[in-house]
Design goal:
heterodimer; A: about 400 residues; mainly alpha; 2 domains; about 5% strand; B: alpha/beta; Rossmann fold; 6-stranded mixed sheet; 4-stranded antiparallel sheet
């Protein structure tokens, strides 16, 4: 091992350990983000989880059928039903005052006319009414409507079979029964290997740990540039050059410590996902269990790190002062994170924004992590992400070297 | 012996060259002063010697060998102590010394010995554990110098090593630098403080606008200029005498006159007495570098 490289590594490590603000940005920030965003986005990632929107049923019919419909809606359990005194005006007021977001009004004669198509007997059928809070997301309005339609369909089918049974003299249970139809829908994530244990959808912790890990890795720009700018401003780079230290050795002296730092961040954030998130009521992060998958995971982490450190060196070379570097690097990272699906998961973005996300190196990294963690992808599957990240790293590094070379020769 | 032969250098996008046909002979084992105002080309020359810049025109050699070849054979042969505090403020004094020693390729016992020697030389023993950012200006200069000495260089380039230093530290630094040639190190010292150069340099060159105006031993330079006389009179100098001796006015009733030689002084005094001028005080032949510089460049060292 070259003593010169060793000295450079040691120097960078000590300088880094003494940069408290930098370390705070690198470890505390992503931990907080993982905890907050995992909690905030928990429901968005869990299909079938209860939705925080309440509804009431105004039952003007008070028949066995209307009660049966209410029971069926209760069973679906996606929305909360508040108990209510069957007054349509009070239901309207309840929406205005924000007590509930939806009110379903079952008209008088609902049960009687359940199997009578409108106007079949010359009398109009009063429709079911759904009062909605206009601020409730259209997707949720639609979801509730579909749930009512489904319950209504099932109710009609039961009623139909019962009447048909009577007609043909088949033995039937007395009264109205809610049959358990085997029509439950279970969501199964599609992956390469589909053993029973892993056949669940990603949780928000699985989106957030890799996302904020990538974000935090890119924040090495703060310590990298603060040390590098001190070196340039104070003439230390000149001195090192006069000592015959080639610039590539100086860069190599920076790459390794920050690469190692990124790997420590990766381990730290995985541990936060596995052990700290559950303490706050979230689901624990599950890491791939097999060695090849773990290696793939690490390969993505390594590629993200190289891209992040190279990017940091480029910013450090572009910026004249550390304030500039903080702004350039900080704003650059936030932008990359915003369009790259770190802050807002890519799948909730409209198609145009998803296309834009493909431009962000952070999105390439996230795609790589998702490939391994959610789809249990092979090395070939993560290769496109790796190549994008490594190309980005190579271009950033080349630009950084070129900028420094130009600055040194044009110095006056 | 360091020889600089016809070296010129022009920065990219600069309208005039920073150095123009500079030739200097710098003897081994001495302190050589490079004197000039800001922007004269001192730092450019130092950068060329340190290998930070490469001269397209001219030749620089040390003991007959091109400087680049010497540097390639032994990167520690030439050391630069830049004008800035070129070390790591967040590292302690000893960590800085260990780092720069390591970068020079020193290790083990040799590294330890060199760090101890440099620490002792710059008298940094009391502050080895202190972070560099907590040091006073004087101690920072000493650390800057100590780092330069780690590789036991044959040639030490000091670029304005006493800027921003309190008088005690300046005194200590100057004494320390003056002692270096005895240990086998040739020192090139740039400064625009002429008292410093007068105090420690055996040979000097005055450069301005990229050109060498004069070079030689301090004595030669101070005495080679034509004699000038500073006169302070009780009344104004008569015009006839002023014209005769090409007098310039330096202040109220203070004049500088050109004398062909010191032998011309008694005659001048007679003429003054005849004109009824009484002399308050006069000085002859006592040049300092400031005056020489003024004569050569028509401007002050601190411009």
């Amino acid at each position: 091992m070259s003593p010169r490289l060793l000295a450079l590594w040691l120097k960078e490590t000590i300088a880094l350990l003494r940069d408290r603000h930098g370390l705070l940005a690198l470890f505390i920030m992503p931990t907080l983000f993982i905890l907050i965003m995992t909690m905030a986005l928990r429901d968005a990632f869990t299909p079938g989880a209860s939705i925080d929107a309440a509804y009431v049923v105004v039952d003007l019919d008070q028949s066995a059928h209307s009660q049966s419909l209410i029971k069926r809606l209760d069973k679906a359990a996606a929305f909360h039903r508040h108990q209510f005194n069957n007054d349509p005006e009070a239901a309207r007021q309840g929406i205005l005052s924000g007590q509930h977001a939806l009110a379903l009004i079952l008209p008088k004669g609902f049960g009687e006319r359940l199997l009578t198509p409108a106007g079949a007997d010359g009398q109009p059928t009063a429709p079911l009414q759904l009062l909605v809070d206009p601020t409730l997301s259209p997707a949720l309005q639609l979801a509730f409507r579909n749930q009512v339609m489904a319950a209504l369909g099932a109710l009609r089918a039961d009623e139909l079979t019962q009447r048909a049974g009577k007609l043909f003299g088949l033995p039937t249970a007395p009264g109205i029964t809610e049959k358990e139809w085997p029509d439950e829908i279970r969501s199964i994530a599609v992956r390469k290997d589909s053993d029973e244990r892993s056949a669940k959808l990603p949780s928000s912790v699985q989106q957030n740990v890799p996302a904020w890990l990538i974000f935090a890795m890119f924040f090495v720009v703060i310590p990298v540039s603060s040390i590098f700018i001190i070196e340039r401003q104070q003439g230390t780079l000149q001195r090192l050059r006069a000592m015959g230290v080639p610039f590539r050795l100086i860069l190599a002296g920076k790459l390794l410590p920050f690469f190692v730092l990124n790997q420590i961040q990766a381990v730290g954030m995985v541990l936060v996902g596995m052990f700290v998130v559950p303490l706050f009521g979230g689901e624990a992060l599950e890491m791939p269990a097999s060695l090849p998958l773990l290696f793939n995971w690490w390969a993505v982490a390594a590629a993200v790190s190289l891209a992040a450190v190279a990017w940091a060196l480029l910013i450090a070379s572009l910026a004249k002062t550390s304030e500039q570097a903080t702004i350039l690097g900080g704003v650059g990272n936030v932008l990359m994170g915003a369009i790259g699906g770190i802050m807002v998961p890519k799948f909730v973005m409209p198609a145009v924004m998803q296309k834009l996300a493909a431009l962000s190196p952070m999105a390439w990294g996230l795609e790589g992590f998702h490939s391994v963690m959610l789809r249990h992808g092979s090395f070939a599957d993560i290769l496109p992400s790796l190549l994008q990240l490594l190309t980005f790293a190579a271009i950033s590094l080349t630009l950084a070297i070129w900028l420094n070379h130009r600055a040194l020769t044009a110095r006056s | 012996m360091l020889q600089i032969d016809g070296v010129s250098y022009r920065y990219r996008a600069a309208s005039s060259p920073a150095l123009q046909d500079v030739s200097l002979n710098i003897p081994a084992n001495g302190v050589y002063g490079l004197l000039g105002p800001n922007g004269a080309g001192k730092t450019t020359l130092i950068s060329l010697l340190a290998g930070l810049l490469t001269a397209a025109i001219g030749r620089i050699s040390l003991n007959g060998q091109p400087l680049a070849a010497i540097r390639a054979a032994n990167p520690r042969a030439i050391a630069l102590v830049p004008q800035d505090y070129a070390f790591y403020p967040m590292l302690s004094v000893s960590e800085n010394l260990r780092f720069f020693g390591g970068v020079l390729g020193l290790q083990g016992a040799e590294l330890k010995t060199q760090i101890e020697a440099a620490t002792a030389f710059a008298r940094l023993e009391q502050v080895v554990g202190k972070r560099a950012e907590q040091l006073s200006g004087g101690l920072r200069r000493r650390l800057n110098l100590a780092i330069g000495l780690l590789g036991q260089p044959q040639l030490l380039l000091l670029d304005e090593p006493t800027v921003g230093v309190d008088p005690q530290s300046r005194h200590f630094l100057l004494d320390a630098i003056a002692a270096l040639p005895a240990a086998g190190t040739t020192v090139i010292y740039t400064s625009h403080y002429m008292e410093e150069v007068e105090a420690i340099c055996q040979k000097i060159a005055i450069i301005d606008q990229g050109q060498v105006l004069t070079e030689g031993t301090l004595d030669n330079i101070l005495h080679s200029q034509e004699s000038s006389l500073e006169l302070h009179l009780a009344q104004a100098l008569p015009d006839s005498i002023a014209t005769l001796y090409a007098a310039s006015t330096e202040g109220e009733c203070k004049y500088r006159l050109k004398l062909p030689s010191t032998a011309a002084l008694p005659r001048l005094l007679d003429e003054l007495a005849a004109a009824g001028c009484s002399v308050r005080d006069l000085s002859l032949g006592q040049h300092n570098l400031e005056q020489v510089f003024m004569q050569l460049t028509k401007r002050s060292l601190r411009d």
